[in-house]
Design a protein that fits this description.
By secondary structure, this protein is α/β, with parallel strands linked by helices. It has two domains: 1-102, 3-Layer(aba) Sandwich (Rossmann fold); 110-139 and 147-206, Formyl transferase, N-terminal domain (Rossmann fold, 3-Layer(aba) Sandwich), CATH 3.40.50. 34% of the residues lie in helices and 25% in strands. The chain contains six helices and nine strands. The chain has helices at 14-23, 43-50, 66-79, 96-101, 122-129, 164-187; strands at residues 3-8, 30-37, 54-57, 84-87, 106-110, 133-140, 150-157, 191-194, 197-200. α1 packs parallel to α6. The longest helix is centred in the C-terminal third of the chain and has 24 residues, at 164-187. It is globular, with a radius of gyration of 17 Å.
Amino acid sequence: MTLAVGVLASGRGSNLQAILDACARPEFPARVVVVISDRERALALERARAAGVEALWINPKDFTDREAFDLALVRELQARQVGLVCQAGYMRILSPVYIRAFAGRSLNIHPSLLPAFPGLHAQRQALEHGVKVAGATVHFADEAVDSGPIVMQAAVPVAPDDTEETLSARILAEEHRIYPEAIRLFAEGRLRIVGRQVIVNAEARR
């Protein structure tokens, strides 16, 4: 059975495109059924429409607070029977209302080797700290920022002459590789959360 995926995106949607490209493969066990953005002109919505996927803008200004917005978000996702939600450059902090609704069924990607450098400008933080290895992390979303159980990581060496832009570009290439892979593992029933750890089963769930 094919997993229905919802994607939350605020910007250009390059990770969304990597997910859409993966889902276009006949053997891939998931399909994006809706892309939701908090920004009306987000390029991610255009990418969704180009792929024949429903693109939905929810205006935060229509709601009194963050929880009211997230309740609307949850209703839209549940109405489409989404089994997994993927944050892909989604710039809003999600409230407990959302986290409770999709506990263990919401993935995020972050451009660092978590738990190092959570939050904004992770690549800049890595360069300022002089690390020799940076990277990307796919993790389950929880109520804190970039702190949920880690599913996959990819290491990216930091070159002496790296700028924030050059390092970000190499990390992004790894994000595009590991995010669809994490979705595939979830769709195959191979991910199990035990405390703070994610156990990857060798075989798909029957």
